[in-house]
Amino acid sequence: MNQLLNKLERKYGKYAVPDLIKYVIVLYCAGAALGLIDNRIYYNYLSLNVEAVLHGQVWRLVTYLIEPYGFNTGMGFIVSILFFAIQVNLFFLFGRSLERAWGTFRFNMYFISGWLLNIVAAFILYGAIHSTYYMSGFQYIYWSMFFAFAAENSNMEFLFWFVLPIKVKWLAVLDAVYLIYCVVENIVSGFSYLSQGGTLAAAGVYFSTALAIVVALGNFLIYFLSSRDYRRISPGDIKRRKRFKKQVQQAGRQNGGARHRCAVCGRTELDDETLEFRYCSKCEGNYEYCSEHLFTHQHVKKHV
């Protein structure tokens, strides 16, 4: 995967959109505005309805990204607005941090692949159980940015509920547990609905939510795993590090525990901690000298 992304970046990297998170937030805010006006507009004309797409409403493949935000009514409305504002700020933080860590092209690809994977999942669900509505836009892809952010900044601390300091990595673990619970709950609810005489297509509301979460987590794992350096855990590299460590230990025992020894006077850093040691580039072989003899020693030449 990493090699594929590198190849794509060399070919298409010039088309990447800098600071993409700004445009993503515009879509997110548009969904929030739509939710305040009327949710039915989205589900009737903009959502990822596969059957409607197959009948020519291809714009839904893009407009499904504008999913309404679920504002609460009554006394909870003000709190809902507050949490929406917090989410927007967090998305800015996550997005810009990931773009700096991954690069503009890979951050663009993260959203493009999330968009395409959701479309593929919707068509698979439609083909399997004839579920027309894919009841999730892009919300889980947005929040999967948090896992990527936590992987890159695991020791950063947030104030949980604005009071308790907690490291990002533990918040990510809690969030992962919650999402896994949501997947299981929706699958169980779907089968429970079927057992009560519900139709398979209607049960797709639950199954599509579970599938959308799995797609978002899978999208995160693709980019997380592709950013890891697996050479450090390869058998050859592990063997090389062990061999180097053994050589260093043997050299230390030979020098009485010292790491450096002057080839002229024989002094080590244990004799004088202010001594500095360097290798001579003109000597043929690995000869190390203290600062007093580095420029005054006679260069060692191998006889042919």
From TrEMBL:
SUPFAM superfamilies: Rhomboid-like
Subcellular location, record wording: Membrane
Annotated transmembrane regions: 20-37, 74-95, 107-129, 141-164, 176-194, 200-225
Main localization of the protein described in the UniProt heading: membrane
Keyword 4Fe-4S belongs to the record: no
Keywords: Membrane, Transmembrane, Transmembrane helix
Gene3D superfamilies: Rhomboid-like (1.20.1540.10)
Membrane association type: Multi-pass membrane protein
UniProt-recorded name of the protein: Uncharacterized protein
Naturally occurring in which organism (per UniProt): Jutongia huaianensis
Lineage, top ranks: Bacteria, Bacillati, Bacillota, Clostridia, Lachnospirales
